[in-house]
Amino acid sequence: MQPASKYKNETEYYKAFNSVLEECTSLIIQSNEGNFHERLATILEKIGLFSGVDRAYYFDFNFDKQTCSNKNEWCSRGVKPQIEFLQDVPLELTPNWMGNMMCGEEIYIDDLQALEEKWKPEKQILGQQGIQSLLSLSVRESAQYFGFIGFDAVEFKINWNEDFRRLLSILANNIGSVIRRNNQNRELHLKLDELRHLHSQNKTIISVINHDVFAPIKHVNIVGNRLFKNTDDLSKEDLLEQLTLIINSTKRMELLCSNILQTLKSEDGLILQREKTTNCMHHILADLNEYIFIGLMVNNNKLVSEINGSSALYINRNVVNIVLTNLVNNANRFTKNGMIKITCDFETPQKHITVEDNGKGMTAATLEKLRSGKIIIGNRDNPELSGYGIGYSLIFRMLEAVNGSIDIQSEQGKGSKVKFSWSEAE
Fold first, then answer.
1. What is the pTM of this model?
2. Over the stretch 228-251, which tens digit does the pLDDT of each residue have?
3. What is the pLDDT of residues 167-180, one digit of tens each?
4. What is d(CA 87, CA 89) in angstroms, rounded to the nearest whole number?
5. How far apart are CA 60 and CA 55, in angstroms?
6. Residue 307 CB partners (closer than 8 Å, separation 6+)
7. Cβ-count burial 336-347 (b if 16+ within 10 Å, e if not)
8. Which of 55, 63, 140, 304 could disulfide-link to 152, CB 3.0 to 4.6 Å?
């Protein structure tokens, strides 16, 4: 306690102490996340100097790691700091201490040497710091515990009376309320950022629907009207050609709608709910060939595939289906009268699927935009990107989910080569 000689009587002492507490309470309540620890350090110093202790500190709990760490420490002149030695301290090392703390009880030790035998683990740790007397109070808000503040007497023993301890416990609770407020503000800002991102994402998806999905719908309507009005004038070959165009447009719409749906699902993690399973690459390629058959026929392209190593593939099938369908569809869209080759290199735990075409390729500017992984909207200036960017954006999401990578190479007039890689190693 503060030396009695400084005060005429107990009333004057508590008046001075209340003044210190009011100042400390004002400091902490008006703090924010940015200056919280700076103000807490000031509070610890003020109380430490007033009460005549040698060390004042704040410890923070990390219940995920089951540890606590010294975040703030004030020491009187000549007293050795302990903060560097008190980081990530396992909670299990101080069972009695934690038992009291989690019940919201104070820990008041007026004489360390007089501690009961059951407090032996705590006595050993405190003794190493030269502590003779100690007061520690939990920092909490209701049933939510954040840590504790403490005051050590090293040079000589100190007695804290009940009123003094009670007033300090009120300050500790105020600190807990501020920590909870800061945590809630942080969570609120994170939620706001998520909402802004979703809003931006939704605006982008609406733009994709408005431009890229409606384009093939309009094409289907035009061809359908033409067929309806000129059925008698069309030969069987002409009719087949027009029907093929309709099917190709609907396939394109199907993929675009699927990509939009999968993008929305990926925001909630729904797309990866299916667990990893062993899949046959031959079956995946057969399904892909059937899906894209009409598109290949319209563009007069040939699709070939090669599997090096075992055809058994251990992966979430949603991932490989989405990636491969988009890569092959994009290759087909920008290739006429050409060849699309799928090469699967499965001879090592590091797996690679490469899709290569000899189509028109991409400009350097387009390539840079696709490598960004962002959704790109086709427009009059960039008609080649129509319905293109959302597929690549989804591919990047799938890659992130399996810790994979993608390498996109392209040269205008010569074609493109895209390699999708991931590891099967657990």
1. 0.51
2. 666 666 676 777 777 777 766 776
3. 899 999 999 999 98
4. 5
5. 17
6. 281, 282, 344, 346
7. eebebbbbbbbe
8. 55
